[in-house]
Amino acid sequence: MVITTHTSEIYFVFGNSWPPIIHHFSRTDHKMVETMQSYWTEFERNGNPGNGWPAYSIETDEHMFLDEPPVAGSKLEEATCDYHDKMLGY
User: CA 37, CA 49: separation in Å to the nearest integer?
Assistant: First the structure.
């Protein structure tokens, strides 16, 4: 599993493989462009990304691995998140 940084999805949201010397989109990358654009469009339209995106709850700590194909999961980095929650008084 690769954890990426905030905003790393922007290339896929806008289908931007420019400059091609740095960003050469593979077939999988082009599929991710379709997936990300679908999630963003549905979220803007309905307030929910849809297409299998799990609803979050504190009990299950659902999340989505943005891979091709996307995979829902739960309890990502649970011990680390619990530590920070405790430090912040949650």
Answer: 10
CA angle 24, 25, 26 (to 5 degrees): 115
Span 14-67, pLDDT tens digits: 988 776 666 788 899 999 999 999 999 999 999 999 888 998 887 888 988 888
Is 68 in contact with 32 (CB distance < 8 Å)? yes
Place of tokens 């996307």: 70
Alpha-carbon distance values, 20 to 16, 25, 53, 56 (Å)? 9, 8, 31, 36
Structure tokens at 19: 């400059």
pTM to 2 decimal places? 0.74
Domain ranges of the chain: 10-88
